[in-house]
Amino acid sequence: MVYGNLIDGEWRDGDPFANINPSNLDDVVGEYARASLDDTRDAIAAASRAFWGWSLTTPQTRAGYLEKIAAGIEARCGALADLLAREEGKTLREATGEVIRAAQLFRFYAGEVLRTPGERLDSAREGVEIQVTREPVGVVGLITPWNFPIAIPAWKIAPALAFGNTVVFKPAELVPGCAWELAHLIHDAGIPAGVFNLVMGRGSVVGAEITSNPQVNAISFTGSTTTGSGILTTASARLAKVQMEMGGKNPLVILNDADLPRAVQAALDGAFYSTGQRCTASSRLIVEAGIHDRFVGALTEALASQVVGDARNADTTIGPVVDERQLAQDLRYIDLGKSEGAHLAFGGEVLSRPTRGHYLSPALFTEANNQMRVCREEIFGPVATVIRAANYEEALHLANDTEFGLSAGICTSSLARSMHFRRNVQAGMVMVNLPTAGVDYTAPFGGRKGSSYGSREQGRYAVEFYTTVKTAYVVG
Ligand code: NAD
């Protein structure tokens, strides 16, 4: 069987491509249909035709669909988590959390749409009333990366549908399985034909068409900074609304007064869980001199007790790298770190396991400095660098000395320092005594500088992107 694309309410075949399990390269998760340029155009045309009717449904009707989708995800939670772990390589525990998150997002936006904000103003003119309301934007193109195969699609699709938009969804090629299952659940919930369309396939074909087609009114993209900048140039030239979530090089500052076990846990989780493949990963550990050696010793010990293995084994704590290309990139950066003069204090070795997979031991560099490319460029793997700082002021300076600005963290027992850091670090999200990764769906998500562009995702803030404001002047 080939899993097809969903276009105008129908499942459509296409050129098949294989979805391979990174924990076991001999395991083919499934064959999925690659959408063609014509398929993509048909999906966009269908979304455009469906928009008017869908946009006029009541919020209660749309909330009902979202509730059904959430229930569908919950009912299949175990199978979806297993599929996620199998196609992406996240551990089962992490995969289960991600699936639950997807259901929570659909439930949250089912509630949000029932309280879509508006405003009434008194006019400066006698007898005139001003009403500020929100309307859907139109056809939205959603382009997602491989590292959160169900949560990122959910945090875009749920608000898009809730606020009355129609959707053309293009998942990353490495993870079509969760995308197809989600599309199936949306279809099964009875959503009218054309309101939601799935087009799996190449970024250069499907993604490029979504970006340039004038019938797509808005694009929400999550992925690398390079791809994002290209999309931004094309989409903004035709005045489409754009939202971009891109790379990170997130600092976690550890001060002398930090609770050591807590700081080590924050670094371990933030830098290495999900195999370090998170945009919010704590890839730069900036450590004050007085705690440096104790921190490095304790973190190295914690790394030695990690179990790198098949994502679906119960005792695995770090799954495989997602594919061969990403593994090659991780290894190139590990070589680069050594040649730049950083000290590889732990890991960085390709591991062999009973099945053929992309297994890499978590790599920790010490004696790094912030000018090294390993400290400036996003690696997107289980690789972290430790940079020594003389004091808090230098640590803050180093934290901000980056082109990115997604998430930043500090471990300290000083309320004053944590408050100073919270105010002065240049990042969209700040964590105090917590890993830089790990966020709530009820709160705004996004960054500054090279990490993000446009309005925030998630929480109540998603309404900014998925609606447009109308100001009405009314006299009776
Ligand atoms: P990527 O940029 O290679 O691909 C992202 C998506 O864009 C995929 O669906 C891809 O097919 C598509 N694409 C590729 N070329 C395109 C084109 N020319 N036109 C339109 N679409 C195109 O990213 P990836 O490797 O899938 O994901 C890893 C990256 O995602 C990392 O840089 C990571 O930091 C980032 N990311 C960011 C966030 C965030 O919220 N800031 C979250 C997760 C991942």
TrEMBL record:
This chain belongs to which protein, by name? aldehyde dehydrogenase (NAD(+))
Catalytic activity reads:
an aldehyde + NAD(+) + H2O = a carboxylate + NADH + 2 H(+)
Cite the SUPFAM superfamilies for this sequence. ALDH-like (SSF53720)
Q: Which Pfam families match?
A: Aldedh
Query: What InterPro entries does the annotation carry?
Result: Ald_DH/histidinol_DH, Ald_DH_C, Ald_DH_CS_CYS, Ald_DH_CS_GLU, Ald_DH_N, Aldehyde_DH_dom
Q: Which residues form the Aldehyde dehydrogenase domain?
A: 14-471
Q: Which family does it belong to?
A: Belongs to the aldehyde dehydrogenase family.
Gene3D superfamilies, per the entry: Aldehyde Dehydrogenase, Chain A, domain 1, Aldehyde Dehydrogenase, Chain A, domain 2
User: Catalytic site residues?
Assistant: E245
Which keywords does this Swiss-Prot/TrEMBL entry list? Answer: Oxidoreductase
Q: Which GO terms describe its molecular function?
A: aldehyde dehydrogenase (NAD+) activity
Species of the source = Aminobacter carboxidus
Q: What is its EC number?
A: 1.2.1.3
